[in-house]
Amino acid sequence: MAGWGLWIFALFGLALAQGPEKRRTGNVCHADMDCPDNAFCRQSSYCVCKDGFVYAAVNSTHKGCLKEARMGEECVQHIQCHSTMGVHSECADSVCACAPNAHLEDDRCYETAVIGERCVVDQNCFLGEHGTERQAFCVRGYCTCQLQYSPRDNGTRCVRDATLGEECEDELQCAGAGLQCRGTCRCRDNWVAHQETNSCVESVKALNDPCVYDVQCDSLSGTKDARSPGAALCLGGACTCAYSAHAAGTPQHCWHRRRPGQECRRDEECVSEEDEPGYCLSGRCTCKTCSPDARDFGSGAATIRPPYLATAVLFVAAILRH
């Protein structure tokens, strides 16, 4: 990139290119007829090119007033392009164009800079496309991506930061703690999504550890293979079992209480009316000291059918007796 001295010179040159000095031919005159084509006599003293013309060499031996030219228009000298498109334009193959290290924006040529390179104005920061929204700006003399964007591919483009659930192309795009890119931004292992803030928060690893949100305690609600949703909550700034749950197992997790006779999946769920530990037998809770005991829940159908069958036999016998 050019140094500051070059930039100051370029801006000074641009100002001159637009001023009357670049239109002054140097011819002495008393009337317009004393001046070359496309010029007039100013103050009966010297010739000046008309508006829209600049004084330059027409060929190797003659100078004259040449018509200013814009992008794609025919030209003879660079100055024809400079007067309309700035000093970073040139006359290439008899047509006005931006110099190889410049680009066209707002009908002018600006020296191109990518993210991290020096700049003077926002228009220097060019990433190859003219979108509806500028993605790069000149901040304190350097090209910088706009807020919530970050640079990629050696500063040649800016990528919008992605939040939880949005598509991403790499880890850097996922903005926020605990995020990773797996096609979309997702929470890392041992982190969990908090829907209200649309962010990831770290899971709490043990009961009574500090927390902010209930969702941080979810990993303590049952186990991975047998969840007990809502059994662990963030109460008073620490993960604690809910009022309808109790702590059980090693290490301790929270389980919703299941009383004798209620359906269950794990022993840890089962407690007696006196909160004594129970166990899960054939999908129902029981305990050694419970009443009724385990036999009443282990084979309920078998123990219920005989009384009904005996009653039916006695009823038939009574009818036959009469």
What does this structure look like?
With 322 residues, the chain is α+β, with helices and mostly antiparallel strands. It is 16% helix and 30% strand. The protein is built from four helices and 25 strands. Strands 1-3-2 form a three-stranded antiparallel sheet, with no helix packed on it. Residues 1-20 and 293-322 have low confidence and may be disordered.
Concise synopsis of the structure shown:
Residues 98-153, 156-194 form the EB domain. By secondary structure, this protein is of the alpha+beta class. It has four helices and 25 strands.
Task: Please specify the SSE layout and strand pairing.
Elements: H1 4-18, E1 24-28, E2 39-42, E3 46-49, E4 53-57, E5 63-67, H2 78-85, E6 89-92, E7 95-98, E8 102-105, E9 108-111, E10 136-139, E11 142-145, E12 149-152, E13 157-160, E14 179-181, E15 185-187, E16 191-194, E17 199-202, E18 222-223, E19 226-227, E20 232-235, E21 238-241, E22 245-248, E23 253-256, E24 279-281, E25 284-286, H3 294-298, H4 300-321
Antiparallel strand pairs: 1-3, 2-3, 4-5, 6-7, 8-9, 10-11, 12-13, 14-15, 16-17, 18-19, 20-21, 22-23, 24-25
Protein name: Teneurin-1-like
Organism: Papilio xuthus (Asian swallowtail butterfly)
Keywords: Signal
